[in-house]
Structures are given as structure tokens and as C-alpha cells.
Amino acid sequence: MTPHRSAIRLALFAILVATGARASQVIHLDTRGLVHESSDIVIGQVEDQSAHWNAEHTRIVTDVTVHVTQRLKGAAAERITLQQWGGEIDGLRYAIPGAPSFTRGEEALLFVWRDAQGRPQVDGLAQGKFEIRRDPATGERLVQRAADGLAVRDVRSLAMVPTGGVTPRLKLDDLVKEIQGALGEAGR
Q1: 3-state secondary structure of 80
Q2: Nearest residue to 35 (alpha-carbon basis) of 175, 149, 170, 144
Q3: Residue ranges of the domains in the chain?
Q4: Could you list the pLDDT tens digit for every one of the 188 residues in the chain?
Q5: Threshold 0.85, pTM exceeds
């Protein structure tokens, strides 16, 4: 994604938040869209998260430190610190609808973009975070979005599971193959 598009995305997001919008509108991205929009794509484990005020002391932000175990795109170091809007300080909570949430120790595949200041953030709000779980019987790594209403049916289109539908068990290896295919197309 170009710095210009990042700036526009951030400006539009800031306008929505500043105007007190009750709902966020996010454009659906399939795997190829997320790959092309992201500066980094990593698999890693959440090590820590820390909420603090922004420099202007007008918003709470949370830094989420992820130990990178696999890089699929970008030059992410061994650790990447995501800066997410929202969090809680001294009982004061600031939440962004549709933003991803994190838990220390969880493993995730993350699509990341960088704002104009170079700060890494999850792409497409919670669309860019896929939690990784292990099948208890086989040990195989499975992937799915955990955010309400964002569970997906397949790894290519990332079409949403209909309300009341059964959330499928998607293989991490299949999603990684889709990502690698999209990266190969971009290199042509």
C-alpha cells in the first residue's frame, strides 16, 4: 500500500472516531486484497500488551508486542510492536468497534500495515488477525477469525460465515499457501 493510501485510510478512520460514529464501515478484503494492502504478514505469539495515552493525551492506545516466528511478507524483526487504538487505563476504557483484541500467549497470523509514522497496525481492523489453534487430536494448526461476525468460510475469498452458520475449521497451511500464491502474483 502506498503511503498516500495509508494516510487517506488513517484520516478517514480518524474522522469516523472524532465524529463519534456509532458504527465502523470496513471494506471486505479477500486474501489477495489483504496481501496486497499489507506491508508485513507474520505468524507470531503475543508476548505483552500495554495501554497508554497518545502524545496529545486525547486517546488511549495499546502497544501489542508479538514475537515473530515466521515472516511471510516484509522485513519484520524478531518482534513487532503493533499500535492499536483503544485500551484501558485506570478504569477508563476506549474501544474501537471492529478492532482486534489480543491475549497474552495467543498465536496469530497477522496482516500488518504501517501508518505515515511507520507504526505497524493490524490491516482492516480485525479482518487482518487470524487466531491459530491446535487440533487436540492431530496437533494440526487451524486458523479462524475470532472477532464477532468475522468468521470466514474459506481461505481464498474470506467470505463470512452467515449468521447462525457453522464456523469451519480452516487449516493454517492452506491460508499460508493462498498468501504465498498472492505474493507470487505480485512479483510477476
Answers
A1: strand
A2: 175
A3: 3-186
A4: 454 444 434 444 444 444 344 455 668 889 999 999 999 999 999 999 999 999 999 999 999 999 999 999 998 689 999 999 999 999 999 998 889 999 999 999 999 999 999 999 999 999 999 999 999 999 999 999 988 889 999 999 999 999 888 999 999 999 999 999 999 987 65
A5: no
